[in-house]
Amino acid sequence: MSTPPIFPDLRILSTIDQVGVEERAQRFQARSIKKESKLSALKLAITMLDVTTLEGKDSPGKVRQMCAKAMRPLPEDPSIGPASAVCVYPRLVRVAKEAVGESGVKVASVATAFPSGQSRMKERLSEIRYAVGAGADEIDMVISRGKLLHGEFRGIFDEVVRCKEACGEAHLKVILETGELQTYDTVRVASEIAMAAGADFIKTSTGKVQPAATLPVTLVMLEAIQDFHDRTGRMVGMKPAGGIGNAKLALQYLVMVKETLGKAWLTKEKFRFGASSLTNDLLMQIRKQQTGRYQSADYFSKD
């Protein structure tokens, strides 16, 4: 029988040095990866993708095409991929589940009134149960940012606990929507609450609010994960999402993860990229490493 979640003692959290965090994050932008390691890092990044479509015009056909791309990112080279998951709205979970079949690609669904979180708890839990019932392996929930900014920390903790219970066997990623949280201190508090309440991953953003993922805010969350692991022994995953559109930036995130948390987090089980446009740039860079020249963007299928 698992131990019930316990509300965290937030008094142990120290104030975050904004200048220090931003300077440390900037140093990761200056790191270089040796040529012989770069191809491996690019291929690793492909396996960490949550390939995503969250638009009002999403259709079954678009989702099936995206699933095919996630399963075989570069059809002529089976050594590349597959991606870790596809992420869709609840209504399209069943379509995605049928499309990925037994490929090993997971199906993630946003839920809890994504992206605003502005609905009653009853409807938010019902949406999770619907997505899980349709076959979702993972749920990406949004927290009530208004409650958080008004200091209703216990309320945030309780809603994550209830959402985790509604997930059953599905993994829970908790979206903080860091672009609305105003300060790194608030991001740190939200991270701590989500992890204590049972989150399997903490995630920066919905991709619908700017700024979305940034290196500094992700560093704050990674350091929160490290501290939580030191205290509890539990490894929580990390998912930056929104605004990561090119391979160079993706590799900077991987360097930051390795140097902050260590190699144990450099797996698709513990680190993901939420991305709708990153895949093709990674593939272009892989081809550049393999052949010495860039392929035309037309060479790769559009997501």
Task: Give an overview in words.
The chain is of the alpha/beta class. It has a single domain (20-291), classed as Alpha-Beta Barrel (TIM Barrel), CATH 3.20.20. The chain has eleven helices and eight strands. The protein has helices spanning 18-29, 35-47, 60-71, 93-100, 121-133, 145-149, 153-167, 184-196, 215-232, 247-261, 278-291; strands at 49-52, 85-88, 106-111, 138-142, 171-175, 201-203, 237-239, 273-275. Strands 7-6-5-4-3-2-1-8 form an eight-stranded parallel beta sheet. Strand 5 (171-175), helix 8 and strand 6 (201-203) form a beta-alpha-beta unit. Helix 1 crosses helix 9 and helix 5 (121-133) runs parallel beside helix 7 (153-167). It is globular. The mean pLDDT is 94.
Features:
eight-stranded parallel beta sheet; 303 residues; TIM Barrel
Structure summary:
This protein has 303 residues and is α/β, with parallel strands linked by helices. The chain is built from eleven helices and eight strands. The chain has a single domain, classed as Aldolase class I (TIM Barrel), CATH 3.20.20.
